[in-house]
Write a structure and sequence with these properties.
Blueprint lengths: L6 H26 L5 H35 L5
Length: 77
């Protein structure tokens, strides 16, 4: 098992992988349709998307968490 101090990195790795996998598949399907070799094209798109998604989430997540905390902590009248 991995030490709890790496929770953010593991969480980011999983989140970016799942989201980029789903989104690259949907966008590839919308743009090309169900063509021959779709799986290979999707995999290539996913690898590129994952390479961008992981570092992006690592940078953006702390800011997003701070903003979400501010928004969620406001009292609703």
């Amino acid at each position: 098992m991995i030490n709890k101090k790496y929770l953010l990195q593991v969480q980011t790795l999983l989140l970016s992988g799942i989201m980029s996998f789903i989104m690259s598949g949907v966008i590839t399907l919308i743009n090309l349709g169900l063509v021959e070799g779709f799986g290979v094209i999707w995999f290539h798109a996913w690898v590129l998307a994952y390479a961008i998604a992981f570092p992006t989430i690592m940078v953006v997540f702390p800011f997003a968490r701070k903003m979400a905390t501010r928004i969620a902590s406001k009292e609703v009248e």
